[in-house]
Amino acid sequence: MNNNYETFGNYVLLEKLASGGMAEVYLAKKIAAGGVQKFVAVKRILQQFSDSEDFIQMFKAEAKIAINLSHSNVVAIYDFGTQDGQFYIVMEFVEGRNLRQVLNRMKKNNKYLSIAQVVHITKQVAAGLDHAHRCIDPTTGQPLNIIHRDMSPQNVMLSFEGEAKIVDFGIAKAETQIESTRAGTLKGKFGYMSPEQVEGQVIDSRTDIFALGIMIWEMLANQRLFLANSEINTLRKIRECDVPSLRKINPNIPSELDQIVQKALKKDKSQRYQTAAELSRDLQGFLSRFDPDFSVQDFGSFIKSLFSEEIIEIRKKQIVYSQVTVAASTANHDNERTEVVTQTHSTLIDDISFDEMSLNTITKSQQQENTGIIRQQKVAGLDFSNAGVDTKRKLQLVKREGSDHSKQLGQHTFTQSHTLTTARRKKKNGDTAVLTAIFAISFVLILFAYLNKFHPQFKANFCQSVPITGFCETTSTQVASSGEVLKIQSSPSGAAVYVNQQMVGKTPLEVKVKSLPFTLGLRRSGYKSHIEEIAAIPDSGAIGVNLKKVPSGWLIVRSVGAEIYVNGFKVASGQKVSVPANSDIHVKAISSINGKYTEEYVSVKPGAIHSMIITPPTGN
User: Fold this and answer.
1) Are residues 460 and 598 in the same domain?
2) Using omega within 30 degrees of 0 as the cis cutoff, is the peptide bond preceding 517 cis?
3) Are 28 and 11 in contact (CB under 8 A)?
4) Are residues 204 and 328 in the same domain?
5) CA–CA separation, 74 vs 98, rounded Å?
6) How many CA atoms does the CB half-sphere of 441 hold within 13 Å?
7) Interacting residues of 188 by C-beta distance below 8 A, sequence separation 6+
8) In angstroms, what is the C-alpha Rg of the chain?
9) Burial of residue 600 (number of CB atoms within 10 Å: 0-12, 13-18, 19+)
10) Which residues form the domain of 344?
11) Taking the model in full, what pTM does it have?
12) Rounded Cα gap, residues 610 and 294, in angstroms
């Protein structure tokens, strides 16, 4: 992976995500006070458009409009301005794929979106459109009359969490007008235009509704609606507006849904849905009757499974990008310099390996050269154990030459600095010594806490040798007598037995007790799970549990670099586990990197298999 990163104003450009005729989009981040950082998308307008005065005025006006939009189904705009003569917009970074990419992936896999998934996407997009169409100018209190004008699958982002978000509100108008002015002809995505748009008539918010109607028709029919063998014929088909019934293409599509789509695609805009809110409401009502259990979590799990390999790559990159920091920046145009610092650990970035089957790998530690920083070699399948790789911190400097640096667009070369002053070297060595001491003490404390938590007898043995006042007296862990055995039985037998969330066998089972108290769990397919804390060994030396039979389904949870718990039981990534049906199932993923966690509640129908991907926070 390339370690050379460009600084653009207050942002570090990490990776180019896309480029087109008007702009290029980068994954970027801004380092805030205290090291707080957030990934964003920076859309940088190409230089030739920034030289057009007409474009500048339209861009400013439309960016000011778009920044007023605030809705969960619209990609948020955080900032806009100019840097080195180029206009830019800072947008919300949506971790996902656009609708066209999703449809292409499914076509490649010979799969199609279900009716519930199509309706879910469309009703969310309609809700975002409604927000934009109703947006009020906060300075005047008057409607802004925002129209997207370019609704198409490429401008709908589907997040890995199952949300649909509209992209490019506010600059679609500027883009269309600039292209029309330059070429003198109608430009845009012809296949998603409305009849009035093709005819050159005055358009309003109902043209966005028509475009959304095309999208839902195509997703349900699995074919294009107006696309022809030439642009002229495509425009002719839109003018004619002959929309086949979906039920003739697929009889399984309910007539109610067919009628909703037909109304959105009326040639006469006065007969269409008059607001996107009406369309969203009808779609929501249909979905509630058609599939009342469908949820955004279900769709998120589907998208994650569709792009599971890409998600792993994203996680790998985020770990690397989180270590890129802006070390210094000055505003002096004669002596401006920005340091981009990348901490390189004992691994080649391209060698980072995520293996879902090795999430329980025991961690090791190794002291790094010249830093004294102890790093985990293996954390939940991340292999940091390559030997012979330079572990020194690499300082890569952006060199901007001369007073004309403001005209350069970022084609800078990052090279290792050999010009640090003696004072800075001393300060660095002093800082390193302090950090070494802090990390050494932290390591000892973490090691002690680990042994105390996962090996309760350690504390008792330690206190026998070193009776520390205020520590040893408060221990509640009892070391069981040597060889003490607990018999565990269940009715019916064959239940998986968990001791402190670790599976040790199936009933009937004899467990050698090492310490008290401990958590005992029993789980069997088709029966309600049983969890209890055992504080003392019964006189009989045995525990019997009657398991209650309940309807059940199956749950498959996947995560990368995390420990997964289902209803309190630790499970492996990708493991198929039985869970009670029609009840809230608690799923929790704890990051093995930073200890942060994410938890969700899901429900499974009787006999059904539900797959999901859960991702704990990756930030610091």
Assistant:
1) no
2) yes
3) yes
4) no
5) 13
6) 5
7) 149, 150, 176, 179
8) 30
9) middle
10) 313-399+414-425
11) 0.54
12) 12
**Is 476 domain-assigned?**
yes
- Distance CA(539)–CA(580), nearest Å, equals 33
* Domain presence at residue 593: yes
Report DSSP letters for 34-46, one per residue.
GG-EEEEEEEEE-
Show contacts of 62-65: CB within 8 Å, 24+ apart.
62/170, 62/171, 62/173, 62/174, 63/89, 63/170, 63/171, 65/135, 65/144, 65/146, 65/169, 65/170
The β-bridge partners of 158 are: 97, 164
pLDDT digits 0-9 by tens, 315-370: 888 888 887 765 444 333 333 334 454 443 322 223 223 332 222 332 333 333 33
| Rounded Cα distance, 248 and 571, in Å | 46
Instruction: Identify which of 165, 226, 223, 228 has the alpha carbon closest to the alpha carbon of residue 192.
Output: 226
Which residues lie closer than 8 Å to 85 by C-beta, 6 or more apart? 47, 50, 406, 407
Dist. CA 28–CA 39, nearest whole Å: 6
Task: Supply 334's token pair.
Answer: 């004669």
Are 258 and 337 members of one domain?
A: no
- Per the structure, how many domains does the chain have? 4
**Same domain, yes or no, for 610 and 499?**
no
Amino acid at 161: E
Mean pLDDT computed over 75-84: 86
Q: 423 in helix, strand or coil?
A: helix
Q: What burial class does residue 288 get, using C-beta atoms within 10 Å of its C-beta: 0-12 exposed, 13-18 middle, 19+ buried?
A: exposed
Answer whether residue 83 is part of any domain. Answer: no
- Helix, strand, or coil (residue 299): helix
577 with 594: CB under 8 angstroms?
Answer: no
126 and 264 fall within a common domain: yes
The DSSP output letter for 125 is H
Residue 506 belongs to a domain with what CATH number?
Answer: 2.60.40
Q: Are 224 and 218 in contact (CB under 8 A)?
A: yes
Question: Residues 501, 374: one domain?
Answer: no
- pLDDT, one tens digit per residue, over 547-573 is 888 888 889 998 877 889 888 888 888
Q: Which of 84, 137, 150, 431 is catalytic?
A: 150
> Residue 410, by phi and psi: left (phi above 0), alpha (psi -120 to 50) or beta?
left
Q: Is 150 a catalytic residue?
A: yes
DSSP state, residue 393: P
Answer with the one of 485, 518, 548 that is the final residue of a domain. 548
3-state secondary structure of 563: strand
Report which listed range, 68-77, 267-276, 400-409, is most confident.
Answer: 267-276
In a domain, 7, yes or no: no
Express each pLDDT in 43-67 by its tens digit.
888 877 777 777 777 777 767 777 8
- Other beta carbons within 10 angstroms of residue 18's beta carbon come to 12
CB burial of residue 120 (10 Å; 0-12, 13-18, 19+): buried
DSSP conformation class of 359: T
329 shares its domain with 192:
no
Give the CA distances from residue 58 to residues 138, 208, 534, in Å, rounded to whole numbers and listed in that order.
Answer: 19, 20, 70
Residue at 78: amino acid letter: Y
Residues 567, 541, single domain; the answer is: no
Residue-wise burial string across 177-210, b where 16 or more C-beta atoms lie within 10 A, e elsewhere: bbbeeeeeeebbebbbbbbbbbeeeebebbbbbb
* pLDDT score for 380: 30
DSSP assignment letter at 276: H
